[in-house]
């Protein structure tokens, strides 16, 4: 039964991690209806480390763009000969921009502010408010962008300044659970003139170091002290999140070629209202 529950959490993680609708909000709701029979320490670790499955999906789907070594796929090398001819120039530049975008979050973790914000805002009312506020934000930004041509239409056109600005929006997601990491970065990118498909793709790439780092910290804090059943629960959740993420990422990249993000904005608003009603009137 616990493995089936873990699989369901994996499905929710795989869907909500990449769509800008807040995985945290959905996990909180699901947890209230269906709890895993695990310790509080394991649950706290599970919520973060299950994201590794979703990250593996990004690495698999975008391997050629993410892997910075090799001479295939007509990539421009740093130098035409020697060792540096195996270093793909565009991939290294992209990774430098990703590191720049990660700086605000890194500073927050080093200062220990991430846990403080979790203790303050990881609750149903705060998550619901974040869902609604950023849902409205998507509607406003899409209205502002209506009829305007984006200034940035490829990853290579993202400047270091733009990357850092996107990183600041990602910081909002770290500060306020329910904001949605992908939602915050996509919304921020749209606001500063990045096209929808590039905003989504850069968000996927930005998730790789962020989630890998967060997962590693959680595992180290947990102490690698897994029982066999805990390890099975974690692996099942990660595998399901991986499989579902592949489908969802492909869907989103296809969807935004012809549609905007308004539907996700409305969905966030409705979900936020449902969370408020459930926790204040029903529960």
Shape: globular
Biggest sheet overview = none
Q: Which structural class is indicated by helix and strand composition?
A: mainly alpha
State the distance separating the first and last CA atoms. Answer: 25 Å
Low-pLDDT ranges = none
Assembly level: single chain
Number of strands: 0
Q: Give the C-alpha Rg.
A: 19 Å
Count helical runs: 13
Q: Would you tell me the overall average pLDDT?
A: 87
Helix content: over 70%
Order of helices and strands: HHHHHHHHHHHHH
Q: How much of the polypeptide forms β-strand, as a percent range?
A: under 5%
Number of domains: 1
Q: What is the topology?
A:
Elements (H helix, E strand, L loop, with lengths): L1 H15 L6 H11 L6 H10 L1 H11 L1 H4 L22 H22 L2 H9 L2 H22 L14 H16 L5 H11 L4 H27 L5 H28 L6 H21 L1
Helix pairs in contact: 1-2, 1-12, 2-8, 3-11, 4-11, 4-12, 6-9, 6-11, 8-10, 8-13, 9-10, 10-11
Q: How would you describe this structure to a colleague?
A:
This protein has 283 residues and is mostly helical. It has one domain (2-282). The protein contains 13 helices and no strands.
Keywords:
single chain; 283 residues; mainly alpha; 13 helices; globular
How would you sum up this structure in a few lines?
The chain is built from 13 helices and no strands. Helices cover 73% and strands 0% of the residues.
